[in-house]
Amino acid sequence: MGFRVFCCGFSFASFVVLLHSAVLILLLLVHHKASAASQCDFFTGRWVPDKTYPLYHPAVCPFIEREFSCQKNGRPDLDYTQYRWQPLGCYLLRFNGQDFMERLRGKRIMFVGDSLSRNQWQSLTCMLHSALPNAKYNLTRQQDVSTFSFPDYGVEIMLDRNVYLVDVVREEIGRVLKLDSIEGGKVWKGMDMLIFNTWHWWNRRGPSQPWDYIQEGTKISKDMDRMLAFQKALATWARWVDLNIDPNKTLVFFQGISPSHYNGSQWNEPSAKNCVGQKEPLFGSIYPGGLPPAVGVLKSELRKVTKPVKLLDITNLSLLRKDGHPSLYGLARMDCSHWCLAGVPDTWNQILYNLIL
Ligand SMILES: *[C@@H]1O[C@H](CO)[C@@H](O)[C@H](O)[C@H]1NC(C)=O
Ligand SMILES: *[C@@H]1O[C@H](CO)[C@@H](O)[C@H](O)[C@H]1NC(C)=O
Ligand SMILES: *[C@@H]1O[C@H](CO)[C@@H](O)[C@H](O)[C@H]1NC(C)=O
Ligand SMILES: *[C@@H]1O[C@H](CO)[C@@H](O)[C@H](O)[C@H]1NC(C)=O
């Protein structure tokens, strides 16, 4: 080359090298920005067929309850287990049970909530057991708390059945749902990780409603707007978190609203009265019916918590999975609320795993 820039004695070659370095630095910066966003949005994406799923065959998980064992209950198709969630802007690492267990060594995780929490809890125990089939496990129950332990790792994965998070107290007048009282929180203390959920029971009426009165402050009434009651209970829960959580000790998640599929108009199939016979997810990222209103209430209450709480924002990805429910193959006559296992909650746990890496 031998070309010299007139003033500075720079060769063209070094100019090229300089330019090259500048481009490299720029690329590094962009990359850095991308990995700073590696708290990537795992919740916006689409479902893609993937024959390497499910993570476990339901038959190798001996403790799945009847409620979620669709295969055992006669569901003929397995297609719904062969999808992978693909976020739009990044990749999810495949769940690694061995790695998850090592990270959790000596720790206690507790799911708190209704049967959707049980769904996720069972999913996680199945994912771990199938990854570590030789690890001893022990399943015990005391009152409302079920504990699945892996003694060799000192890991306990617990479930506290508590459908409202706030208390239902038996009093002289009857059973009172107390929106300001959260004594149930005593068993949540000292956990290393908590994953809360409540929603589905707020709409229960009639014989399946487990309370007779609802109390807010000193005011006791027969009923009130259910969405408002839900919001007040979440506010009580948020105060509990701010008062009781040491963020250095405990990671706090909220499971998010798990959607049901009882109305085909919501996915442009008006003739469908429920999820029966659905064999495919909705492809793409848009659910025509939009979000359930409870999501907005939950998000606005979560914004008021001062301590760090991460929302497992599973609503959109689950809305797309009209094919993932037990339908006829669960316990209820038609169950389009819970999820078959293996199935959709495995993805909730895969995201949980990616969030704690
Ligand atoms: C979920 O869907 C709603 C409306 O369909 C949209 O506004 C929202 O951004 C979506 N959220 C995520 C995390 O994809
Ligand atoms: C399982 O846990 C219970 C209660 O903690 C304990 O009594 C029992 O010995 C445990 N069983 C095994 C096999 O570890
Ligand atoms: C958490 O740990 C940090 C650093 O070790 C410390 O400065 C902080 O005071 C701790 N916070 C609490 C609430 O204990
Ligand atoms: C089903 O959804 C459609 C569209 O959102 C709505 O107009 C209709 O009232 C719903 N049907 C029932 C039974 O809830």
Automatic annotation (TrEMBL):
Residues 39-90 form the Trichome birefringence-like N-terminal domain. PANTHER family: PROTEIN TRICHOME BIREFRINGENCE-LIKE 41, PROTEIN TRICHOME BIREFRINGENCE-LIKE 9-RELATED. InterPro entries: TBL, TBL_C, TBL_N. Its main location: membrane. This is Trichome birefringence-like N-terminal domain-containing protein. GO terms for cellular component: Golgi apparatus; membrane. It is found in: Membrane. It is a single-pass membrane protein. Keywords: Membrane, Signal, Signal-anchor, Transmembrane, Transmembrane helix. Residues 1-36 form the signal peptide. GO terms for molecular function: O-acetyltransferase activity. Residues 94-354 form the Trichome birefringence-like C-terminal domain. Belongs to the PC-esterase family. TBL subfamily.
